[in-house]
Amino acid sequence: MYTSKVHEYFQLWKHAIKFVIKSEYSEYITYIVLFVSAIFVNKYVLSVLKFTYPTIFQGWQTLVGVLILKFLTMKKQLDVTLLDKATVINLLPHCLYFLGAIVAGSKALAALPVPVFVSVCNLPLACIFLLDYSASPLNPGLVQVTAGVISLGTAVSIILLDISMPFADSGYSWLLAHILFLTAQTLHSRITNPRFTEMDKLYYSNFFSVVVLAPSSFYLEEAFSVLHFQHRRQVRFYVGCVLSGVLGILLQLWTARLRADQRFQRTQALAKLFACVVALPVFSPDLSFSVWGFAAANLVSSILIPADYESLEKHDDMLDI
Fold first, then answer.
1. pLDDT tens digits, residue range 74-104?
2. Four-residue CA torsion sign, 176, 177, 180, 181
3. What is the C-alpha to C-alpha distance for residues 197 and 203, in angstroms, rounded to an integer?
4. Rg (CA), the chain
5. Could you read off the pLDDT of 174-232 as tens digits, one per residue?
6. Which residues fall within 8 angstroms of residue 225, CB to CB, at 6 or more apart?
7. What proportions of the chain, in percent to the nearest 5, are helix, strand and coil?
8. Is the dihedral of CA 132, 133, 135, 136 positive or negative?
9. SS3 of 11, please?
10. Rounded to an integer, what distance in angstroms lies between the CA atom of residue 183 and that of residue 127?
11. Rounded Cα gap, residues 19 and 21, in angstroms
């Protein structure tokens, strides 16, 4: 009986995988699976297993990323611009923002529920879109502008609703830092020399993070504290760490691949929505009805926000010509 059940589930997954591969939306479905998996593995290691050593955890993830990217470059699967003075000058700010974002994001995800984390992370998208809209004579549409305002308002409301905990001692301070670094990273990408590809940014950001986090772990004494970390589910901890590193770099590679796609923003919004839905039975986040309502409104409204308002300007200029 048990063997037949396993066989049925195996066949079900087999047909599902074949459907995804043959589907025209296979790349987007793959991104959603990678995003949800990466969020949940990181949340499990950080919150359930309580491995709260960001320099060690993020240093490990970026080390795995560098090794995989280096392997791909050696196999001629990726092309990376050689490091020179111009590369350093152009990409150093991006690397700093990347490092700040992953460390602050790790601290925030460890302390906050998944729905709160992914919803408030829509703030950069909404703010940049509304700033672009206010500075441009073009009108993207009432629906998109309304969605941007709702996304901004609901994200701020989620933070303000939790007034029981001092801001400085909560995950919200780290989440705010994470948002600021993400915003700076997005804006800096607009002025980066176009000869540097997404893969260049990805490779050197991970490499820079390893170089900085390795000595930082000793300076902050996390490298010594982690030696005393023991968990009754030690095997799960090792598996979680390995998966976090592999899933993290796969998600970054898939993001770099789809970033220029017009459907990417909606795919990312759907991935966040799925992550929140699955978080309910898995982590059972203790959230009020109002926070759930604001999170739902935020995630739904973010689907309607254009990924890059500059693309609207370029498209409109082409139509005028």
1. 888 888 888 888 888 888 999 999 999 999 9
2. negative
3. 10
4. 21
5. 999 999 999 999 888 888 878 888 888 999 999 999 999 988 887 777 777 776 776 65
6. 53
7. 80, 0, 20
8. positive
9. helix
10. 9
11. 6
Tokens of 254: 């898939």
Tokens of 320: 């005028």
Q: What is the three-class DSSP state of 308?
A: coil
Total number of residues shown for the chain: 321
pTM (2 decimals)? 0.84
Give pLDDT < 70 ranges for the chain.
Answer: 1-24, 136-139, 162-169, 227, 230-233, 307-321
* Tokens read off for 141: 């549409």
Closest CA to 59 of 226, 193, 276, 231: 226
What's the CA dihedral at 9, 13, 14, 19 to 10 degrees? 140
Q: Do residues 199 and 81 make contact, with C-beta atoms less than 8 angstroms apart? A: no
Buried/exposed 256-275: b ≥16 CB within 10 Å, e otherwise: bebeeeeebbbbbbbbbbbb
Q: What single string gives the DSSP state of each residue in 210-243?
A: HHHHHHHHHHTTHHHHGGG---TTHHHHHHHHHH
Q: How far is CA 220 from CA 98, 107, 224, 241, 305, in A?
A: 20, 15, 9, 21, 40
Residue 78: predicted pLDDT: 84
Please provide residue 176's backbone torsions phi and psi, each rounded to the nearest 5 degrees.
-65, -40
Token pair listed for 69: 């990217």
Which residue is associated with the tokens 């898939």? 254
